[in-house]
TrEMBL record:
InterPro entries: Alpha-ketoacid_DH_E1_comp, DH_E1, PdhA/BkdA, THDP-binding. CDD domains: TPP_E1_PDC_ADC_BCADC. The keyword Cell wall biogenesis/degradation does not apply. Residues 48-319 form the Dehydrogenase E1 component domain. Coiled coil: none annotated. Gene3D superfamilies: 3.40.50.970. This is Pyruvate dehydrogenase (Acetyl-transferring) E1 component subunit alpha. Its cofactor is thiamine diphosphate. Keywords: Oxidoreductase, Pyruvate, Thiamine pyrophosphate. GO terms for molecular function: magnesium ion binding; oxidoreductase activity, acting on the aldehyde or oxo group of donors, disulfide as acceptor.
Length: 394
């Protein structure tokens, strides 16, 4: 038996232009944008406000890591358009399945800074109420959250309710088997799920062309049998138009969609990474000129939808949030090491209970030793010499 290598599938198509509605210079795009149209000015102003606030939060949290007040933070600076458009496309009853990168999406959905940062401070696995916000824990194992999103969406379909799941993934995560399984079964089961892939062009230091040989990630959707869109991920208008149409389609029973947002990670992967080792300052500058907030600002001013006064008001709001974020980080971390064993299994397991008892005994021993050491370190009490009437010491 030999492999048939005579008729390979060959595509001569070059990389397409990403779909956009507002270009890098802040002008409305006049070409055909695949039938998508600009959201109304009120919606765009709302998205602008959320992006400005999200960026201020992101910059503040990065500063906290530099001051040593926070262990780690994966910044989403430059990716605000993808993050905010994804959240804005959802109804309050829908579910979001985010990654470690997507803290600003949580913020935009109403999670308090101290609850977002609890896990980055090492305080708790996920410091927010997932059911209240309808946001799954921020996933660190790549692409696992995509499977969870498909699971929830499939349950929603079986229950005939109208809940949609939206998951955020990185470009690197699409190289994982979990992403393939999620895309495939979402399509097979026609689950109401939207995959928003933030192609920020790197998986830590690995550029996308070292991970895949096809034109775009969106093209892969064809192979799974679902629609795929290649979108300018720094154009919030386009990201919102495409993603909200995908959410509406999913809710109406039309199945899953893959939306690829072409963007750029302006900061390091996390504060423990040095990006100067794998990308040039010139590349970063190119993307700085494609800033998602700047271009929307220019567009909104040009249509008379953003005044200096409104911009100043939004910046004040962002500044207040940054102050509140700094203040919440001055509160001491309260960690009980025994919590490590909680919520691992629904019912206690013998081996885990034994380990818990072992740790509890060790902690008690350390506490006793620490107390003893503290007592020993105290200066010895001065015993007053008591004189007897006879003058002899007692
Ligand atoms: C299953 C798994 N393998 C490896 C890692 C280590 N890791 C953490 S982040 C990362 C890069 C992910 O890149 P991408 O999906 O593009 O997301 P980005 O960080 O760019 O948002 C890797 C390989 C991991 N977290 N999970
Ligand atoms: Mg990436």
């Amino acid at each position: 038996m030999s492999l048939n290598v005579e008729s390979p599938v060959v595509s001569t198509a070059s990389a397409p232009q990403p779909l956009r509605l507002i270009d890098d210079t802040g002008h409305a795009v006049t070409d055909d944008a695949g039938g998508f149209t600009l959201p109304d000015p009120g919606t765009l102003l709302g998205l602008y406000r959320q992006m400005v606030i999200a960026r201020r939060f992101d910059v503040q949290v990065t500063a906290l890591t530099r001051q040593g007040r926070l262990a780690t933070y994966p910044s989403a600076l430059g990716q605000e358009a993808c993050e905010i458009a994804a959240v804005a496309s959802l109804d309050p009853g829908d579910w979001l399945f985010p990654t470690y990168r997507d803290s600003i999406a949580l913020l935009t959905r109403g999670v308090k800074p101290e609850h977002i940062l609890a896990s980055f401070r090492g305080e708790w696995h996920s410091g927010y109420d997932q059911y209240e916000h309808r946001i799954a824990p921020q996933a660190t194992p790549l692409a696992t959250q995509a499977l969870h999103a498909v699971g929830l969406a499939t349950a929603s379909k079986l229950k005939r309710d109208s809940t949609v799941a939206l998951t955020l993934l990185g470009d690197g995560a699409t190289s994982e088997g979990d992403a393939h399984e999620a895309f495939n079964f979402a399509a097979v089961w026609q689950a109401p799920v939207v995959f928003v892939v933030q192609n920020n062009q790197f998986a830590i230091s690995v550029p996308l062309d070292k991970q895949m040989h096809c034109r775009t990630i969106a093209d892969k959707a064809i192979g799974y049998g679902m629609p795929g869109y290649y979108v300018d991920g720094n154009d919030v208008a386009a990201m919102y138009a495409v993603t909200s149409a995908a959410v509406d389609r999913a809710r109406a029973g039309g199945g899953p969609t893959l939306v690829e947002g072409l963007t750029y990670r302006m900061e390091a992967h996390t504060n423990s990474d040095d990006p100067s080792r794998y990308r040039s300052a010139d590349d970063v500058d190119v993307w700085r000129r494609r800033d998602p907030i700047e271009r929307l600002d220019i567009y909104l001013v040009s249509i008379g939808a953003l005044s200096d006064q409104e911009r100043a008001g939004i910046r004040d709001e962002a500044e207040d949030l940054a102050t509140a974020t700094r203040e919440c980080m001055t509160l001491p971390v309260q960690v009980d090491p025994l919590e490590l064993f909680d919520h691992v299994y629904a019912a206690p397991r013998t081996a885990l209970s034994e380990q818990r008892a072992f740790l509890a005994a060790e902690l008690a021993e350390h506490a006793a030793l620490a107390e003893h050491a503290a007592l020993a370190a105290q200066p010895a009490p001065i015993t007053p010499s008591v004189s007897t009437p006879s003058g002899a010491h007692a």
